[in-house]
Design a protein that fits this description.
Elements (H helix, E strand, L loop, with lengths): L11 E4 L2 E4 L3 H12 L4 E5 L3 H6 L5 E3 H9 L4 H6 L1 E3 L2 E5 L2 E5 L1 H5 L3 E3 L2 H15 L3 E4 L2 E6 L7 E5 L6 E5 L2 E4 L6 H4 L6 E17 L7 E5 L5 E5 L5 E7 L10 H11 L12 E16 L2 E2 L2 E3 L5 E2 L7 H22 L3 H29 L6 H16 L1 H12 L6
Parallel strand pairs: 1-12, 2-3, 2-13, 3-9, 6-15, 13-20
Antiparallel strand pairs: 4-8, 5-8, 6-7, 10-11, 11-12, 14-17, 14-18, 15-16, 16-17, 18-21, 19-20
Helix pairs in contact: 1-6, 1-9, 9-10, 10-11, 11-12
């Protein structure tokens, strides 16, 4: 692997065993694991602290992930403030089908919006554990990633000076458009799946209209209702990919939500002001392997799972647990097994969740596909889910996620 540029000269040089690029859930969790073991590291983030603490993202967290955060001292606020979800509901042809996955498995989901988790993680890392972090950095460049002495350079936004970091490992947690993805060698394999649909993601200043997540399966398109707080509800509406969110007026949004999520025995949805509208094109990707020389990828830099199955943050934190623990073992004990097995261990779960996302997409979007055959098989899948205890148990297991991060 070659570096993204030649190593610059006349820089202010510093040394950290680990440099983490990106202050999202994965990067901050890895940083916290390292600091708890007294391993020095530096987190670089192109955005401000205020931005990452407010960036809108989903918040469905699987039970095994919360256990992993709790074991690392990172779940106190989550456990105090998160909502527990034990069931979901499908609405098809005006009928409600309740699905109590906790009764089937004994497990549940936590709902804790990602901005709150990021706020907790950055406070613990920077303010409590004294971790080094630089916000608003510019022109981050990676060098010597295929050597045992990689370096990272960046421009400090306050001084305007170029800084050079010597390290042993570079951790890429900066998403699909970040500098670490741009540094991948030609032999990196990137598998991609495009679903050919978009979702209009909405936040409404309106109390939830149900006590659980609701999936509307409708010929006009999928719709989703996700409680976020007593005052705010997340909604999704299937739309054409690349659609203009501004073409969705307040009245149009609520008319579609009322139609697609309507149930004969339930009152209309409680409407409110829309405080967020953006279109998400539904696609997945997986980078294989997730390690290139001294560059380790985690989270969206390595894989994306569309919000269809609410798996993205869970996969990012799974990466972080394995990579953080592996780095600590290597840097404090000279034990490299965790780092050597990191990519394969992560990808097993990644592909499992990718397959479930693909299956669930067929369920959500089959009746609106315009294809009579797909619509028919979708309804057959739903009938089996509602009528077969074995099918219901299998769905619940996948919906809740694998049981541990090991």
């Amino acid at each position: 692997m070659t570096s993204t540029s030649s190593e610059p000269n006349s820089l202010s040089a510093h040394r950290f065993p680990v440099v983490i690029v990106g202050a999202g859930p994965a990067g901050l969790t890895i940083g916290n694991i390292l600091r708890a073991a007294s391993v020095e590291c530096l987190v670089l983030e192109i955005e401000t602290r205020e931005f990452i603490e407010r960036r809108p993202r989903a918040g469905v967290i699987e039970e095994w992930v919360v256990r992993g955060l709790q074991e690392r001292g990172l779940a106190d606020n989550l456990l105090e403030r998160a909502e527990l979800h034990t069931q979901c509901e499908f609405r098809v042809d005006g009928e409600r089908h309740r699905f109590s996955y906790t009764e089937l498995t004994g497990h549940h989901h936590f709902v804790y919006p990602q901005p709150l988790l990021v706020t907790d993680l950055v406070r613990e890392y920077a303010d409590v554990r004294g971790g080094a972090i630089r916000f608003g950095v510019r022109d981050v460049q990676l060098h010597g990633l295929d050597s045992d002495r990689p370096t990272v350079s960046y421009t400090d936004p306050r001084s305007g000076r170029r800084e050079l970091l010597h390290c042993e490992f570079v951790i890429g947690c900066d998403g699909a458009r970040g500098v670490t993805r741009a540094a991948l060698p030609q032999h990196a394999r990137i598998a991609r799946q495009d679903y050919g649909v978009g979702w209009l993601a909405l936040l409404a200043e309106a109390p939830p209209s149900s006590d659980c997540v609701v999936f509307g399966i409708h010929p006009r398109g999928f719709a989703g209702h996700m409680p976020r707080s007593p005052e705010v509800t997340r909604y999704y509406l299937e739309c054409p990919p690349g659609d203009d969110p501004e073409s969705w007026s307040h009245d149009r949004v609520w008319a579609e939500l009322q139609e697609r999520l309507g149930a004969d025995d339930r009152p209309p949805l409680t409407e409110g002001r829309l405080i967020e509208k953006r279109v998400l094109d539904m696609h997945n990707y997986v980078v294989e392997p997730m390690v290139f020389g001294r560059l380790f990828l985690a989270g969206d830099a390595a894989h994306l799972t569309a919000p269809i199955a609410a798996k993205g943050m869970n996969l990012a934190l799974h990466d972080a647990f394995l990579l953080g623990d592996g780095l600590v073992a290597h840097l404090t004990e000279g034990e490299s097994t965790g780092l050597e097995n990191y990519s394969a261990a992560c990808l097993d779960r990644v592909w499992d969740y990718q397959e479930f996302s693909q299956w669930l997409s067929d369920v959500y979007h089959g009746t609106s596909s315009g294809d009579a055959y797909r619509a028919g098989t979708t309804l057959a899948r739903l009938r089996r889910l509602f009528e077969s205890p074995a099918a219901a148990a299998s769905f619940a297991e996948q919906y809740l996620g694998k049981g541990s991060a090991s």
